[in-house]
Amino acid sequence: MTEKQGGSDLRETQTTARFVERGAHGEIYAITGHKWFFSVPVADGFYTLAQTQSGVSCLFVPRLLPDGSANRVHIQRLKDKCGNRSNASSEIEYHDTWSILVGEEGRGIREILSHAHLTRLDFAVGSAGLMRQALSLALNHAQTRTAFGKPMAELPMQRNVLADLALESEAAMLGAFRVARATDGLQTSEHERLLARVATPVMKFWNCQRAPSFTYECLQVHGGNGFIMENPMARLYREAPLNSIWEGTSNMMCMDVLRAMQRDANCRDAFVDELRASRGLNPTYDRSTDDLADRLCARYPDDGHARALVTRMAHALQAAEMLRHGDAAAADLFVQSRLGADGAHVFGALPSSDGLSRIVARASVIRH
Ligand SMILES: Cc1cc2nc3c(=O)[nH]c(=O)nc-3n(C[C@H](O)[C@H](O)[C@H](O)COP(=O)(O)OP(=O)(O)OC[C@H]3O[C@@H](n4cnc5c(N)ncnc54)[C@H](O)[C@@H]3O)c2cc1C
Questions:
Q1: Using a 6 Å cutoff on CB, does residue 84 contact ligand 1?
Q2: Among 2.40.110.20, 3.30.40.10, 2.60.120.1440, 1.10.10.10, what is the CATH number of 10-112?
Q3: Where are the domains of the chain?
Q4: Ligand 1 pocket residue status of 89, Cβ below 6 Å
Q5: Comparing C-alpha atoms, which of 216, 187, 214, 183 is closest to residue 198?
Q6: Where are the beta strands (DSSP E) in 71-192?
Q7: For a pocket test of ligand 1, which of 1, 2, 46 has the largest count of ligand atoms closer than 8 A to its C-beta?
């Protein structure tokens, strides 16, 4: 999709495709143009966008032609990336490249974005996994290294940081898995279909947005060793920002959440119904979700409010899942620190209590 002039506004696609013939494989087009980001160029086939007579269309480009010879996909160079270095990303040119039309001509953006639901779910789940790996490394380090006469995990300030990271990791995982369950129910439940439509960009936005600051805190737990390339933390730290860029940036996700609710108010109602199912378990949660329901119905002059609103939606969905499926004390602390007045933007600012050791211990147990 992404060309030099931009990856967010796909209507500006400059690459062109010329109709050639209707053949045994479908409608054949010849593509000419340049793509600025083109990952996994070793793949057997690619979905791509190009302008045809009817507008931006989606085409399938096989790496090999039906006769087994190479298709004309010319790699100009590989990108030298700050992270994600095991996955090749390239810049390419198409020169009369053989391709097959996918879906309706001129409806390519809608077509290609219909595939994005699953990859966005992947990135919500993947960022939760990345956070859990970083947390496990941080816990292991803090529990096995001593300072001031104690394992570092028992120093009150460090314990607060670790407990807060443990809450964040659990909530990220539960939120992503709720979207996964909604995706499983796409064809069997109207509630799950509507929830999946709106909650997928919510959790793609939030988990991917949180991963960099989360891995940064886990890196800090390791002290200087965390910043050294042979430590796995350094790799997680370099990888963490990527999921919030590809398959739609954070701002694009927030825009998509608003779009889903504007096009179909049932999406908004499904989200609110989902939150209502956890009512009665925590008064702060009840107050906060009532307030959120009002904000979701309010009118705004533009999308300047979108990040603040979608952050609240993410916290609310995570809290609902924590209350329903998580440990009761951990869920209460999550609600208090994310939805209540104690909410802070820095890890390690939980109200100090004996319960923090329990949260750290709980996060240290590997469950199968
Ligand atoms: C490692 C890597 C691999 C990639 N692989 C691929 C690939 O295989 N295929 C592919 O197609 N792309 C790929 N991409 C590109 C990626 O999808 C784009 O970088 C991304 O979609 C953003 O496009 P852009 O870089 O052109 O940024 P721009 O579109 O120029 O946006 C820049 C910033 O402006 C913000 N912005 C834009 N419009 C608005 C708006 N209306 N309101 C508010 N904010 C706005 C964006 O959120 C972003 O933060 C890859 C990127 C990376 C880093």
A1: yes
A2: 2.40.110.20
A3: 10-112, 115-364
A4: yes
A5: 183
A6: 73-78, 89-102, 146-147, 150-151
A7: 2
Is 7 near ligand 1, meaning CB less than 6 Å away? yes
- Indicate the top mutation candidate among 3, 8, 242 to test ligand 1's pocket, ranked by most ligand atoms within 8 A of CB: 8
**How would you classify the pairing of strands 150-151 and 146-147?**
antiparallel
pLDDT digit string, tens, across residues 151-199: 999 999 999 999 999 999 999 999 999 999 999 999 999 999 999 999 9
Cα separation, 139 vs 143, whole angstroms:
6
Domain 115-364 CATH (choose: 2.160.20.10, 1.20.140.10, 1.20.120.80, 1.20.120.450): 1.20.140.10
Which 8-state DSSP code applies to residue 11?
G
Q: Is the CB of residue 119 below 6 angstroms from any atom belonging to ligand 1?
A: no
Does 245 contact ligand 1 (Cβ within 6 A)? yes
pLDDT tens digits for range 214-229: 999 999 999 999 999 9
Place of tokens 């996955």: 87
> What is the distance in A from the centroid of ligand 1 to the CA of 252?
9
